[in-house]
């Protein structure tokens, strides 16, 4: 059988899972912040050799892997603080990764991709997912790790609830025969009448 593979073209771009066609994460996004962000990043690139601005479908990145390590790191920190201050009123996240400062729409990240994939797989087959390998190397990957951990916690809660429900059912089944005997009262069980139906030893009531 063919392997079930999910593909995310980028953190904020189309996603395709084994269960459906391509879909976009974060449709109808507000990109009114882009022009301002690009202008600020371009200014920092002009004064920092070895850096450049990269525009993606819904994200903007300031790359500095080719800059002087010490000066590039200082400029990245200054740019990060500058962008967070200027873009505070916009629905975006400003993050510092491995040799990159990134701006992207809030809520559109690797974690959202992972949540969608796990949710769709679970909806298709409720059997708990027993193994997830998640690998990352910078701050932006923390969203992924939190999504996987959140799914694990949901599975634990669901398993505990199922176990508790099963225990209640088993206790109810064990009590049922006793309730039947109690309701039976003075039924004839083939060995004579019970004391409730007649006198002691089968005598008629009132016999001397």
Describe the fold and architecture.
Helix content is 43%, strand content 13%. The protein has helices at 34-46, 69-86, 110-124, 142-184, and strands at 7-8, 14-16, 23-24, 52-55, 60-63, 92-97, 100-105. The strands form two sheets. A four-stranded antiparallel beta sheet has the order 4-5-7-6, with helices on one face. Strand 2 and strand 3 form a beta hairpin. The relative contact order is 0.10.
Order of helices and strands: EEEHEEHEEHH
Biggest sheet, spatial arrangement of strands: 4-5-7-6
3D shape: elongated
Strand % is 5-15%
User: Count of helices?
Assistant: 4
| Average pLDDT figure | 77
Low-pLDDT residue spans: 192-202
Give the class from helix and strand content and strand pairing: alpha+beta
Number of strands: 7
Q: Helix proportion of residues, in percent?
A: 40-55%
**Sheet with the most strands, sense and barrel status:** 4 strands, antiparallel
Gyration radius over CA = 33 Å
Beginning-to-end CA distance, first to last residue: 87 Å
